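Protein in question kept underneath.
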Amino acid sequence: MRIAVVTGASSGMGREMVYQLADRFGGLDEIWVIARRTDRLQALVHQVPVPLRLFSLDLTREDSLETLKHQLKNRKPDVKILVNGAGYGKIGRVGSLSMADETGMIGLNCQALCAVTHLTLPYMSKNSRIIMFASAVAFLPQPSFAIYAATKSFVLSYSRALNRELKDREICVTAVCPGPVDTEFFQIAETTGRIPLYKRLAMADPKKVVQLAVRDSMMGKEISVYGPLMKAFHLLTKLLPHKVLLKLITIKGKE
């Protein structure tokens, strides 16, 4: 049985990924969709042409990971595509957020991502793909978004190293690094602060971001960066000292 596994499938780019994988990959027998909100997952069932297997799981909980582990062991699927899309961010200076929010970002964005990858890798075959949702904030530290940016820097570094480790198995890992994307993400992020105007003006269409991510993954690219603005930003972070850029974005954030 050839499957895709998508975490964070109930909203945003995770949900969009389910739509596009179902439309573009006719060889999939099932897509395993994972998220906490059961009603959101159930709503997907009649919206895609591929059978879905629903998992209402909180991936920061050990019992949820055990459930996934048990299902993989029992069914022994051929996981052709793994999409690690679960994650969240909260805006605010370190210490101004609750400790649960600060550590929770690390738990879901990093620890759960590693756990799902660890559990899934034994079931992946030659020419399979792993798509990791990182972010353009991974390229540069982000004051007032420090922990979220640090988690995405982790995802980018982890993805690039894993991509190298899996070369001999011919499995490609792609880190998706968009700028701000017009999804529900910011409804959660802005419960504790507001994003700067320049980021709001750079919002991208999630459908286009995911289209590029899938294409870049199939082409074997290590990083997928959507849009000329974010590509320029990526280049800038390589050319200029981060100290200089941090001063600039701090000034912009106050305007």
About this structure: The first helix runs from residue 12 to 24. Strands lie at 2-7, 30-35, 52-56, 78-84, 129-133, 172-176, 223-224.
